[in-house]
Amino acid sequence: MGTGAGVWDLVFPPGPPERIADMFSAAVVADAIRPYDADLAQSVETCRDWRHGYHRVFRGMTALAISAPEISIGMAEAGLRSVRHMLRFTVGRTVAALDTVDVDAEADGNGLETGTVVGEAAAVKRLEVPWRGKLLTGDALRLRLADWQTHGILEADFVAAIERVIDHPEWLALPGFRVTVIGAGAELGPLRPLLSWGAEVLAVDKPGHVRWERLRAAALARAGGLRYPVADGEPGVDIARSFPALTHWITGHGDRRLVLGLYAGLPGAAGVRLAVASDVLAEAVLRHHPDAALALLGSPTDTYAVPASVVAAARDHLAQRGFRGNAQDLLHRVAPHSLYRLNYARPIFDTEGGAWGLFDNLPALAGPDYALAQRLPRWRAVLARSAGHPVSFTVAPPAWTRSLTRESGWRAAAYRASSRFGIEIFDPATARTLLAAKLVADLHATGEPRMSNPEALFAEGAAHGGLWRQPFAPRSLLAPAAISGTVQELIHKLH
Questions:
Q1: Count of CB atoms situated within 10 Å of the CB of 233
Q2: How far is Cα of residue 261 from the mean position of the Cα atoms in its chain?
Q3: What is the top-level taxon of the source organism (predicted)?
Q4: pLDDT tens digit string along 239-268?
Q5: Given phi > 0 = left and psi -120 to 50 = alpha, else beta, which region is 340?
């Protein structure tokens, strides 16, 4: 299909407007799992309330993926193939399935111009992590990392990666690399740290005067070089409407080794369209540049297979609760499904006999759109790694993002009391600096990956904030934490 210039768009196939997004996500999931678990696929196809039934299926899909490498890769291939077959690509009055689109041909005649900002500050020459009003460097940073690891906040591989960057500050500017940040304004994205370290960055985000004034000012106040797409004289592009031209623009900056970072997200059905557009972009860039790397962040609110060592740590914490444990056990008996439910109920075994736990923090009310938008980039990461591309995937910690700090309800109260349950909520500046440093370490990693199962990519080097290693399922802590946080706030106000 070659349509020349025009306004592109990704749209769902025809169907009831209020239901089509749910129907689409159910069909994609069923297609992904059908070759490996026909009964689970049938349960999706016959589910009468997919908005409530999806949760169980995504748990089952995660367990299925960890069972064997060929299943993990096969589900990723089948799921992304289904997305491309069902989603529609429109230009003017022309409508076609996405899998018929030649992205390279569609870029013809739809070029983007390039804006640039050259930073005026001196590059930061060592890793400095802001934390509670301090800048941690060197030995002080090592001690903080060791404390986070001891308390189960960060996984050992994550800590080791950050320590490698401390030892090699010359890596920070990423010489020889050019990082594309899709979703440049994302709070936990690496844009600002990378620019502070003097890196070369391609920034992609939606149009918007205020957004781009803020991004350009941030680049000017730092040391790196920023380039961004310009369409019709205005900075920024809508990825879901411009991914063919954007592919051409990104691959045209291949004079350095490309790193494609996918950090953009939206709620609801728009998030699925954005995830699909980002995936098409990723597939095209990796095809054009076989040495390109892929970078992604995993949400702390998702389901993951975690190694037996993490499960064992959670069980140890359960045994060490003391007197408080009696009260928790009593509350669990009163409400076994909603209070103090165990984080890991039964092990999952892979084909090599390895035992895994199933971590489940997929929000009950998030909906299947959210779950699928999180799963699509994970499928791409599995396929990219299996094709030999370097992949940096890090599960991010819970953080005090702007939306959360403006909130005054039960969720904010629960976050305030999280430390009582072995969970740390990170300041965004701390989290994004650590996550950007992990990306730097991953890009400088040498040797073949140790993992035999593709799904281990998501468990290795996680920065989950303690969610994985505490004994109770996170959703079963929401009510106790919210009550505790509300009491804390009342006591604070009284004093």
A1: 7
A2: 10
A3: Bacteria
A4: 988 888 899 999 999 889 999 999 999 988
A5: left
Query: What one-letter code names the amino acid at 23?
Result: M
Contacts of 7 (CB under 8 A, 6+ apart): 91, 92, 241
Residues 58 and 64: their CA atoms lie apart, in Å, by 10
Q: What number of other Cβ atoms are within 10 A of residue 329's Cβ?
A: 13
Instruction: Give the Cα separation of 258 and 347 in Å (integer).
Output: 39
Question: What values do phi and psi take at 325, rounded to 5?
Answer: -65, -35
Interatomic CA distance for residues 209 and 291, integer angstroms: 35
What b/e sequence results for 476-493 when a residue is b if at least 16 CB atoms lie within 10 Å of its CB, and e otherwise?
bbbbbbbebbbeeeeeee
Task: Give the span between the Cα atoms of 241 and 254, in whole angstroms.
Answer: 23
Q: Which among 180, 375, 394, 454 has a CA at the least distance from the CA of 293?
A: 180
Q: Indicate yes or no: pTM above 0.90.
A: yes
- Note the Cα 227 to chain centre separation in Å: 23
Closest to 305 measured CA to CA, from 343, 345, 341, 348: 348
User: In the 8-state DSSP scheme, what is residue 203?
Assistant: E
Which residues lie across from 225 on neighbouring strands?
118, 200
For the record, the structure tokens of 444 come out as 């400088």
H or E stretch including 228? strand 225-231
* Residues facing 391 on adjacent strands: 294
Q: How far is CA 112 from the centre of its chain?
A: 27
Give the angle 298-68-99 at the CA atoms, nearest 5°.
65
- Please, are residues 304 and 375 in contact by the beta-carbon 8 Å criterion? no
Q: Which residue, 99, 79, 88, is CA-closest to 27?
A: 79
Question: Who contacts 57 (Cβ-Cβ below 8 Å, separation ≥6)?
Answer: 29, 33, 40, 43, 44, 47
Task: Name the segment(s) of the chain with CATH classification 3.40.50.720.
Answer: 113-305+364-494
Length of the chain measured in residues: 495
Instruction: Please answer whether residues 136 and 41 qualify as being in contact, where contact means their C-beta atoms are separated by less than 8 angstroms.
Output: no
Tell me the per-residue pLDDT of 274-330, one tens digit each, with 9 for 90 and over: 999 999 999 999 999 999 999 999 999 999 999 999 999 999 887 777 666 666 656
Q: How far is CA 416 from the centre of its chain?
A: 23
Query: What token pair was written down for 40?
Result: 């689970």
Question: Which amino acid belongs to residue 172?
Answer: L
Q: Residues with Cβ < 8 Å from 355, sequence gap 6 or more?
A: 308, 311, 347, 348, 349
